[in-house]
Amino acid sequence: MADATYPEDLRYHEEHDWARIEGDQATFGITWYAQDSLGEVVFYDPPEVGATIQKDSSYAEVESVKAVSDVIAPLSGEVLEINEALVDAPEKVNEDPYGDGWLVKVRLTSPEESEALLGVEEYRKLLDS
Amino acid sequence: MTTDAALRHTPLYEQHVELGAKIVPFAGYSMPVTYEGIREEHSAVRRHAGMFDVSHMGQVEVEGPGALAFLQRVLSNDVSKVAIGGAQYSCLCNEEGGVIDDLFAYRLGGDRFLVVTNAANHEADLAWLGRQSRGFDTLVRDVADRYAMLAVQGPHARDVVSRALGIELPPRFRVSHVQIGRRPALACGTGYTGEDGVELLLDPEVSTPIWAELLDAGVVPCGLGARDTLRLEVCYPLHGNELTPERNPIEAGLGWCCKEETGFIGSEAIAKARAEGTAEKLVAFKIEGQGIPREGNPVMKGDEQVGEVTSGTFSPSLEIGAGMAYVRSELAEVGTELEIDVRGKRRPARIASKPLYAKRS
Questions:
Q1: B328: left (phi over 0), alpha (psi -120 to 50) or beta
Q2: Residue A115: phi, psi to the nearest 5?
Q3: Residue A66: which of B225, B291, B343 has the nearest Cβ?
Q4: Hey, which of A21, A102, B97, B253 would disulfide with B266, CB 3.0 to 4.6 Å?
Q5: Contact B345 A45 (CB under 8 A)
């Protein structure tokens, strides 16, 4: 597994999720720290396309051999697309958590919520504390 | 919640930390759950050789002219069948036939046995054995601090161990006195993975250099995570999950290690369970499709709950969700279709024959 990385251009949620915001859409995933704590992801249980997801609530599950983890939505929105590639290759979440390991794409219903998210420095501080 | 300070360390704790293991509390100890990843460690044991620090397990020595008679009274198997240098699996049962612990007994001499306990049960076992030994001409001694314990498992485990440590190893289900690190030690032809291999009981003072030697010889360090997936694939029960003081060995499928004619404690209840059948039985199952079952998940038939998962995981060898569950006996046939309620989602499952994973020979 790659070393710990936290890209500058992402917004972070304290439950170890990230959002890449592009206009009124965003891509969500889990952070390097989250995938490392969980261990090798062996199963991704995605939401349905069209589902409404709520900031700070669980929208999906990722499982390692030993544990299940709820994935918390960093922002509210409607699911536009899920990462189908993870069905056959869930390990992409570990290998490339910010790239091929993305979980969902959403249309944001309350884009202003992003103000509450953390920047990379704040997120790193949270991890260090 | 136990605080970190209250957790015990095995003599190899520093080695685990140095290797970057993920450490978790287990049975009062800080234990490595994985080093490089459960799947990798799992497949190292299936294909090559892996080693587990199982120094948290307890050892009890039973010695004296009455040792055999005493163990025959407390253990479910026929201990008189064990020759010197032999090993035998048994249940330690209460009067109701419930399983206090499951364990291996090794016969070290005519009047001397070593019993290896599960870490979480060690104190309870000791108390039970101490109490039951009254009236027998035997001594029950806690010798857990005398041993570090390493399980080296996998198709190449014996070769690597005997070459790296320069010792001759006993056959399967035998134990022999050996020298490891120039100290007296025991080599046992037993394990908990479904693979060939050995368990070494050695002087804690030499455990660190021996661990290093085995690492250098290419043995892959494995944590409790892989230990659990390996044992689950071959359907070995885990005390606390499949076995409890409220369940008898018959419903757990361990009737083969109960010899009621020896009159052991619990034998009457177990004979009755064997004759009359039990309301539930322990089964192995595979999920058909997606989903990973977990301990505590309800087992469903239609709208009715008919059982509960005792252990569930993603099986690294089968690459599906699989586990064991107690279900109503009339539904315990291999091939029966059921559903597992995995956090509110019904996952189709089918009862499978044990073991779930069998080695291709």
A1: beta
A2: -60, -25
A3: B225
A4: B97
A5: yes
Q: Is the ipTM of this complex over 0.90?
A: no
Please indicate whether, in this complex, the C-beta atoms of A43 and B292 are within 8 angstroms of each other: yes
Of B37, B228, B290, the CB nearest to A43: B290
Query: Is B306 within a domain?
Result: yes
Same domain, B140 and B66: yes
Bridge partners of residue B282, in order along the sequence:
B326
- Confidence band (pLDDT; 50, 70, 90) for A109? very high
What pLDDT does residue B360 have? 66
- How many CB atoms are located within 10 Å of the residue B296 CB? 11
Which CATH code, of 2.40.50.100, 3.20.20.30, 3.40.50.920, 1.25.40.10, is assigned to A11-128?
2.40.50.100
Instruction: Let me know: does B245 contact B196? Beta carbons within 8 Å.
Output: no
Question: Would you say the C-alpha torsion B10, B14, B15, B19 has a positive or negative sign?
Answer: positive
- The bridge status of strand B50-53 relative to strand B148-153 is antiparallel
Q: Tell me the pTM.
A: 0.94
Chosen for mutation from A40, A43, A87 (greatest number of chain B CBs closer than 10 Å) is A40
Residues B165 and B225 in one domain: yes
Please tell me the distance from the alpha carbon of residue B22 to that of residue B28, in angstroms, as a whole number: 16
Asked whether residue B39 falls in the same domain as residue B173, the answer is yes
Q: How many Cβ contacts (< 8 angstroms) between chains A and B?
A: 40
* Domain housing B108: 58-144
Domain end, chosen from B115, B144, B173, is at B144
- pLDDT score of B2 more than 50: no
**Pair B45, B159 in one domain:** yes
The domain that holds B72 is classified in CATH as 3.30.70.1400
CB B44 within 8 A of CB B50: yes
Q: How far B99 CA sits from the closest chain A CA (Å)?
A: 26
Per-residue pLDDT at A22: 96
How many independent structural domains does chain B possess? Answer: 3
Phi-psi region of B52 (alpha: psi -120 to 50; beta: other; left: phi over 0): beta
Is there a contact between A43 and B313 if contact means CB atoms under 8 Å apart? no
H or E element, residue B274: helix B267-276
- Whether B99 is in a domain gets the answer yes
Which of A39, A42, A68 faces B294 most closely, judged by CB atoms? A68
Residues 52-111 of A with CB under 8 A from B: 61, 63-66, 68
**Per residue in B177-203, pLDDT tens?**
999 999 999 999 999 999 999 999 999
Q: In terms of domains, do B32 and B167 share one? A: yes
Contact of B103 with B62, CB cutoff 8 Å: no
With respect to residue B359, please indicate whether it lies within any of the assigned structural domains: no
Give domain limits for chain A. 11-128
Are A49 and A76 contacting, i.e. CB atoms less than 8 angstroms apart?
no
